């Protein structure tokens, strides 16, 4: 059947000065001059045409459902085009629930189609190659950008304007597209997919806050959080530290909701038992915080919200972060 391309909007679909106008998926693929030479049929479908900063969890799960159905009906793989602002988060959410070995390749653009050096067509071409590559099967959701292939769990947007905007600081790219060939160098760890059939009301109610720790932070803004949210992700200093004045407040919150500890650095893992001062990772674990492992704060928030929406108990949440973090 070839590839199904799902178009969601974003810079790749913005045709210059036309205010509010968007290119359709068919128009995006028509601009990829070498696509016909691949000998792969590409069926373009338009889904949620919104900036990626306005995407919701429910919309992303809708897209994954459509993509999964396309594979069930015979597609070799699926490409999703969207804005880059939340691409690292939508890719990870998709990866958590993706049920197939067939590749799900997400891509976009940093330059609008009318700009000099527009990168969208090259990114789409590379994504289609990845979506049909035998080497990419079983790797889950992948971000394909600038001829690099990144695992959803590791990829980060690391530059605001560069066409080489995505990197995987903790692991490096899984592979590259070289002379039209997909070369996979690494295989990401895979887990049983979580269910994408989440009740939308429970999903909306599963609000998870994200608190980035800063110098002299006493966490006063977290007061009353347990009345408005069901979970919290803390982006701590370095290996997972917070000011001593904040530690007790986090411990109190952990008595009422899951609180996940991550690092604000963007790469590397939080520690478990190296330091013991107030506000250290050992102190915070003793107070009930959950170890986020290698997951960055944004990915941890995605996982926690999906688990809460599915009704996971605390023990299940701890286990999920232990295996996926």
Automatic annotation (TrEMBL):
Domain Asparaginase/glutaminase C-terminal: 208-321
PROSITE patterns assigned to the protein according to its UniProt record, in alphabetical order: ASN_GLN_ASE_3 (PS51732)
Cross-referenced SMART domains: Asparaginase
Keywords for the protein's UniProt record, in alphabetical order: Hydrolase
Positions that bind substrate: 52, 84-85
InterPro entries: AsnASE_II, Asp/glu_Ase-like_sf, Asparaginase/glutaminase-like, Asparaginase_C, L-asparaginase_C, L-asparaginase_N, L-asparaginase_N_sf
Molecular function terms from GO: asparaginase activity
Annotated GO biological process: asparagine metabolic process
UniProt domain L-asparaginase N-terminal: residue ranges: 3-186
UniProt signal peptide: none
Active-site residues, as the UniProt record annotates them: 11 (o-isoaspartyl threonine intermediate)
Matching Gene3D superfamilies: 3.40.50.40, L-asparaginase, N-terminal domain
Family that this chain belongs to: Belongs to the asparaginase 1 family.
Protein name stated in the entry: L-asparaginase
Lineage: Bacteria, Bacillati, Actinomycetota, Actinomycetes, Kitasatosporales
